[in-house]
Design brief:
alpha+beta, 7-stranded mixed sheet, 5-stranded mixed sheet, 28 strands
Length: 774
């Protein structure tokens, strides 16, 4: 057997090894776990968006048979829910586990009940009588600082959490000299994550050993372990966090929540396990929401359409509290403001406003979808103003491919890119001239066909620690070969749909020359995986996969040393391939990988300067982020009689560097497209003027159904990154980032005969019907 006889696994379309257990119902989620003497926790939550709590009567709840405990803020330690700022002077108001004197949003937890039965716990929570003094609610982030508006937090004057400003270059001069300027107000509305599995927690504190095990539906088990140990005072080595299957994360399960901390506090009080499973209505009320920005953009261009400067003012809706990522997410909108364009003068200010709503936080893309949406809409608006084809205008403004690495006006260093390459491939697939001809014919027939384009780049592969506190950093991996030759990989990333049990096995399989069936990938349990940061910001492959690669290379070299010793050969003459160690060019001289592994653990004379065993660990911290990119196109038809948008075609060409598994890339793109198109067309969190949530059920929050989507067409180019040895960039957020501006671009193009330049998302039929018929 020669090297050429064995196909490489990296780059192969291998089906996800996780899927059989998931699609047959054999996977284990938090709510599937049953412990002896387990109890259940439920909450009494605020009915008001803003109200003073005058009295809490828990007598009826305590009297209900089966109730073990009823607690209010006075009964629990004053532990803060973790929150952090975006600037050194960010106002971070107190956010305790249970509301004390004032409820700040609908769903704010005020009291909790623990019972032997989950239904008894829920009934008892409903029996808690809370006397409120309603206060005026702050709902509109743009009006939150108006004179006379209610102060939500005494510490935050004018309801402002922070002001983040980044002026670079000379925008004033650029605007003064501009041949053309365009201005537009745009909204990136609040969204729900709507994971299949709501948040779920099970805490088991053991008094004798002073240990706690927490099963929780999280994307960051190791970060949770560190924070929970610090907050509860339990030594970190006595805290174990397990993230079993996570039925959808999308960023909303990165955060740290009061319910996780309270489950440990309560289990410690009663000496029994405590489970809490979030209801769907609770998920809508209290799990962090995404987006929530209002932007005013102004673009200055020369007579050829070359953008000279951008001025942006963004008001970001923080909600009632700052959680771990609430304040930081909008800053990514500022940092990625230039997109894929060569723009040197930027003046951006982002202000974070408190409102009486659930906190915002990370949601797929986290600040980058907003940035791409704003700049892509402005490019379309500028193209319309100057009567330049939107494709041509983008080309005139692209960062040239020979200028990478490229430092943007906001200070980021794009690692590599070739934006013409993805755009050219997209135009070839869609046959752009033919599409424009078809559009012209449709308009002659009274049909309103629209063609939308967006080009995008994002910051991901969340790397260097010094860049953004809490968002970058290293990742951990270990690779261990058992005596039998079977391989166990442990990764500090915590996949929840990304397919790393497959892709990481592909990476290790190629390095060790063993079949994928002989490789197991462990994750999500802090007792089995010693360290890690988690999965967010498309970092799993670029950072976590590189750590796995480095550990596998160490094991490979040690295995070759053992094999050379067994075979009396030179290490340099050996290769690991096809499940064996063989002499290059003489495949008949070999030892099986299992024989080499057995010898590594057997009492025998070892090679010089070699310890027994085949195992290695690795930490990898990249020197920079990665910046994948791409170009998307959509074709839509808008019905004049109904305003309904029919999505006829969607094509995505993306570049994520080295592709480990094309099937996984396609799956991530498809999922991201659905979420981004949903923002463009249907989804929106709606509160009324009193802060009451009007979109609090799946009957009111319009998650799209499969029937509105065409069969997505996807393609790739490959521009590797120098940031990691895999050359991989990240793909998990690409579809979401690119698709919203693509769809809005297509709809505005369809409505151009009506003089429509811009329409805010979501593009509901009644909104479009009015534009076409009034």
């Amino acid at each position: 057997m020669t090297t050429t006889d064995v196909p490489k696994m990296v780059g192969a379309r291998i089906k996800r090894r996780e899927d059989p257990r998931l699609i047959t119902g054999r996977a284990e989620y938090v709510d599937d776990i049953q412990l002896v003497r387990m109890t259940y926790m439920a909450f009494a939550r605020s009915e008001h968006a803003h109200a003073r709590i005058r009295n809490i009567d828990t007598a009826k709840a305590k009297a209900l048979p089966g109730v073990l405990l009823v607690l209010t803020a006075a009964d629990v330690p004053p532990i803060p829910v973790p929150g952090q700022g975006a600037t050194p002077d960010t106002i971070i108001p107190p956010h305790l586990l249970l509301a004390t004197d004032t409820a700040k949003h609908v769903g704010d937890p005020i009291a909790l009940v623990v019972a032997d039965d989950r239904y008894v716990a829920r009934d008892a929570a409903d029996l808690i009588e809370i006397d409120y003094e309603p206060l005026p609610a702050v709902v509109d982030p743009e009006r939150a600082s108006d004179p006379g508006v209610t102060q939500i937090h005494p510490e935050a004057a004018n309801n402002l959490a922070y002001l983040w400003a980044l002026p670079t270059g000379d925008s004033e001069q650029a605007f003064a000299n501009a041949a053309v300027t365009v201005k537009q107000r745009m909204i990136s509305q609040r969204l729900m994550g709507v994971p299949m599995e709501t948040r779920a927690v099970l805490a088991d504190y053991r008094k004798g050993a002073d240990t706690v095990t927490l099963w929780t539906s999280t994307q960051t088990p190791h970060l949770h372990k560190a924070f929970l140990a610090q907050l509860t005072g339990i030594s970190e080595d006595r805290v174990r966090v397990i993230a079993p299957e996570v039925g959808g994360g999308f960023g909303v399960k990165i955060d740290f929540y009061a319910e996780e901390i309270l489950s440990i506090v309560v289990s410690r009080m009663i000496g029994r396990p405590v489970k809490w499973i979030e209801s769907r209505s609770e998920n809508f009320q209290v799990t962090v929401q995404g987006r929530g920005q209002v932007a005013e953009y102004e673009v200055a261009a020369d007579a050829n359409g070359k953008v000279q400067a951008i001025r942006a003012r963004i008001r970001a809706d923080m909600g009632a509290y700052l959680q771990a990522f609430t304040a930081g997410v909008p800053t990514f909108s500022g940092l990625m403001l230039p997109g894929v364009y060569d723009i040197h003068n930027v003046d951006v200010e982002i202000s974070g406003a408190f409102t009486n709503k659930a906190p915002t936080g990370a949601y797929r893309g986290a600040g980058r979808p907003e940035a791409t949406y704003y700049i892509e809409r402005m490019m379309d608006i500028l193209a319309r103003e100057m009567d330049i084809d939107p494709i041509e205008l983008r080309r005139r403004n692209f960062i040239p491919s020979d200028q990478f690495p490229y430092t943007t006006a906001t200070g980021l260093v794009y690692d590599s890119g070739d934006y013409d390459k993805t755009l050219n491939k997209l135009l070839e697939i869609v046959d752009y001239p033919a599409l424009r001809q078809e559009q012209a014919r449709a308009r002659e027939q009274g049909r309103y066909l629209g063609i939308g384009i967006s080009t995008w780049a994002e910051i991901c592969g969340m790397g260097p620690s010094a860049a953004f506190a809490g968002l970058g950093g290293w990742e951990y991996a270990s690779v261990r070969v058992e005596r039998t030759g079977k391989v166990t990989v442990a990764t500090g990333t915590s996949p929840h749909g990304q397919g790393q049990e497959t892709s990481f096995a592909q990476i290790v399989g190629d390095e060790l020359g063993v079949p994928i069936e002989d490789i197991s990938v462990l994750h999500g349990d802090t007792a089995m995986v010693h360290h890690g940061l988690g999965t967010y910001g498309s970092r799993a492959i670029a950072v976590g996969g590189t750590a796995v690669l480095r550990a596998a290379i160490q094991v490979r070299e040690k295995a070759k040393k053992f094999a050379a010793h067994l075979m009396d050969a030179s290490e340099d003459d050996l290769e690991l391939v096809g499940g064996r160690a063989q002499v290059k060019g003489s495949p008949d001289r070999f030892k099986t990988f299992a024989e080499v592994a057995g010898a590594a653990y057997a009492p025998m004379s070892l090679p010089a300067d070699t310890d027994p065993g085949l195992e290695a660990t690795s930490y990898f911290e990249p020197s920079n982020f990665t910046y994948p990119f791409g170009a998307h196109a959509a074709v839509v038809e808008v019905e004049k009689e109904t305003g309904e948008v029919k999505l006829l075609r969607y094509v995505a060409v993306d570049d994520c560097g080295t592709i480990i598994n094309p099937l996984l890339v396609e799956g991530q793109i498809h999922g991201g497209l659905v979420q981004g198109i949903a923002q463009a067309l249907t989804e929106e969190v709606v509160y009324d003027e009193n802060g009451q949530l009007l979109s609090g059920t799946l009957m009111d929050y319009a998650v799209p159904t499969a029937e509105i989507f065409p069969r997505f067409e996807t393609a790739n180019t490959v521009t590797t990154t120098p940031v990691n040895p895999l050359g991989a960039k990240g793909i998990g957020e690409a579809g979401t980032i690119a698709s919203s501006p693509t769809i809005v671009s297509a709809v505005c193009d369809a409505l151009a005969p009506f003089g429509v330049r811009h329409v805010d998302m979501p593009l509901r039929p009644e909104k479009l019907w009015k534009l076409m018929n009034q």
